[in-house]
Specification:
alpha/beta, elongated, single chain, 6-stranded mixed β-sheet, 12 strands, 6-stranded parallel β-sheet
């Protein structure tokens, strides 16, 4: 090998080393940027419900934008209070930077929230409040207003007169209790000739909601309308209406979206769905936690608007808010 070839070889070797070092440096920089030491625990009410998976997507999006890491840990079912309490304990043991928490019981989750506060870790509640004010911020739907909107849809469909059934979720779920309260108070005030003939709590599953709704429809055949307060109760109640061959005959309004319910709207079997924006709730929860960690001022209550989906805006809403509708 002559001197000229040796020089070219050495030049190429040095260039390769510098290029490799540059790439490695960029990778290390990106890793450092993506892992800046901030870890936020996001604790949902439940992990098997599609609605909460959309919340998870919103939380991940916010974490990516803020270059923080999140953990996702909670009970499978929204009625498992002990597992959710344990998820809080796990987050505290891990010494996370902040906790974004969707309490699945208005009363039972007070002590865990107070424990988070006592640890000095910022706590942002999402979806449902709890019977305490020691949290830093709350991001969720105006549930009372959503229930009121459902009452107005049914009131208009029945021309202000008729019998309605109310399918509740589980006791002490603050968000769904608020929807039921908004529904009942609005009917009483604005549509006094519409009577709630019965209301029924469920075990929080689609199957139980379906069976309980079938029982009510059997007991009260003179039913003109029905309102269900969240995703599992809405899907279950709609299946019950179909089971009883009453689809399209009963003015049904559900709360929270599902492809099955959207198909029902398209077929004229579901009057409307009051849809939350779970993506924005998860996104706002993590964003708010990061602001608190930066020392920025945040609002105590951040309302994420709900949306009414019906026949005349169905396709538009699908295009604009696919993730919020669970598509």
């Amino acid at each position: 090998m002559n001197k000229h070839n040796i020089f070219i070889f050495l030049l190429l070797a040095v260039s390769a080393v510098l290029l490799t070092c540059g790439i490695a440096k960029k990778i290390m920089h990106r890793r450092a940027k993506a892992d800046n030491g901030i870890k936020i625990a996001v604790i949902p009410k439940g992990t098997i419900n599609m609605w909460w998976e959309v919340v998870h997507k919103g939380a991940r999006k916010a974490a990516e934008e803020e270059n923080v890491s999140i953990t996702w840990n909670g009970p499978e079912t929204e009625t498992d209070r002990e597992k959710q309490i344990q998820a809080v304990e796990d987050a505290l043991i891990q010494k996370v930077s902040a906790i974004v928490f969707g309490p699945n019981d208005f009363k039972a989750m007070v002590r865990p929230i107070e424990k988070i506060k006592a640890s000095g870790i910022p706590c942002v509640l999402i979806d449902s409040p709890a019977d305490t004010d020691v949290y830093d911020s709350f991001a969720g739907t105006d549930n009372f207003a959503g229930g009121a909107e459902a009452a107005r849809r049914i009131g208009k469909a029945l021309n202000g007169k008729g019998n309605v059934l109310l399918i509740q979720y589980v006791p002490n779920s603050a968000s769904t209790d608020a929807r039921a309260a908004g529904f009942k108070e609005t009917l009483k005030k604005e549509f006094p000739d519409i009577k709630i003939t019965a209301e029924q709590y469920t075990l929080g599953t689609v199957d139980d909601a379906r069976q309980k709704a079938v029982d009510l429809l059997t007991r009260f055949p003179d039913t003109q309308a029905m309102f269900a307060v969240n995703h599992p109760t809405s899907v279950g109640a709609y299946k019950a209406i179909q089971n009883q061959k009453a689809a399209g005959k009963i003015a049904f309004v559900g709360f929270d979206s599902d492809p099955v319910l959207l198909e029902g709207i398209d077929k004229g079997e579901v009057l409307a769905v009051i849809a939350q924006n779970p993506f924005d709730i998860g996104y706002t929860g993590v964003k708010t936690a990061v602001k608190i960690l930066r020392g920025e001022k945040v609002d105590k209550n951040i309302m994420v608007p709900s949306m009414a989906v019906e026949k005349n805006n169905l396709e538009e809403m699908k295009r604009k808010f696919p993730e919020a509708l669970g598509l």
